[in-house]
Amino acid sequence: MAMNLLAKARAYEEEYGRLISDLERPSYHISPTVGWLNDPNGFSYYDGKYHLFYQYNPYSTQWDTMHWGHLVSEDLLHWKRLPAALAPDQEYDCAGVFSGSGLMAPDGRHLLMYTGVQIVDRPDGGREDRQVQCLAFGDGTDYVKYENNPVITPEMLPEGGSTVDFRDPKIFRDEEEGCYYAVVGSCTREEGGNVALFRSRDIFHWEFVSILDRSEQRYGYMWECPDYFRIDDTDIILISPMKLSAEGLEFHCGNNAAYLTGNYDREKHTFERKGIFSLDYGIDFYAPQTMTAPDGRRIMIAWMQTPETRHSQPAGIKWFGQLTVPRELTVKEGRLLQRPIRELEACRRGRVFYRDVLLNGHAGLAGLKGRCVDMTLRVRPAGRSLYRLFSVRIAADDRHYTSISYRPGDSMLSFDRSFSGLNHYIVSDRDVHVGYREGEIKIRILIDRFSVEAFVNDGEQALTFTIYTPQEADGIFFETDGAALLDVEKYDMVL
Ligand code: FRU
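ok -> structure tokens follow
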């Protein structure tokens, strides 16, 4: 059975993946070989290459029994597709090979740690998931599941731990202690989502250590896809809480991606939380995962979609689901900054540059258009009076546009894709407060065929959205209420 399901998936993607032309796909964002993609998995550096896996259903553009798709790259920019790495072919993972992470194993093999899902009978006659943590080892192309899987079971959690929601192990090595840790997403009925910490000396035998942090019924009922790392002297935990209630403009209703800042006590294995913030203020961002590049950079990549918008698929599409660009994370004044990795700059072509353009009303500028674009805008008041509104419309023609607008009076940035060509009603707009700088704002906008990522004030905030606007809509226009000065630096992105 083991070989069959994987061989079947590999044969299927080989046959149907090639029918998707490059122009039907995003240009510099990752999409599945064929079918459906969700979370990034196993993001790691192994044998001189970056490896990136993803939650994958090759057979349709809807979520279904999960496999792992696989890509490799030498520069985080040019990705080569490899055959699917894992299929749901064992009893303990036959309902899905769910999310997980990757690392180099002590014996030099590539280690993948993932959640196996099985559907089991409940004493009351119903059926439910059973989620366990498993290992697979490989050479960078072919992976074999560990014969003594699972290595972590929900029975190892303290009393009240869920057997149904217990997933997404993120493994990391503690060099000082010379051992391995894994954070796993979980929950209890009383407290909601939490992050459980496990430890192993040899990666095969694991013990429960502590619950690092918990929702206490305020931040969602389950925390998916946890990650833990330290930048400078700040400990950071990433979580993807499910079913949050909105809080101001920080969190929206439903599934969010958030980060916790605080202090991790290495002796007691406790995490003292100082802050909790949104990771991305757009709509389509979920289940991020990080890795450390060989040069020490902490790099994050995420699913550029959310569970809530997963049915908003354009007709006739042969793939669905994208990943964000990899983003370098740094910490400034206790908050995360996110910047697109510098490797992306290698795709920039055809620079268009304007300085001190006086805007007052509508304007277009010669040379400014495109759907695969890296564009940085700097806007500031012209003279003493403060403009009331600055807005840029992208992916625009006479019927469509997607806008990013800034109102310096209340320091509010708004995004709206209502007119991006959607043919059904889903959430289309968001507002976010941005830092006030005397009416000045800097926005870097990455446009790809089916997405927009905006980075405000050198990465203080990021907003990520998908757009399925017809590709002919490639206009870029500006509008202000009041006079403002604009600098523009724009490149076409050519991979
Ligand atoms: C997050 C998630 C994970 C799970 C995977 C299943 O989007 O729900 O918790 O492992 O997707 O595809």
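Residues 75 and 343 are 7 Å apart (CA to CA).
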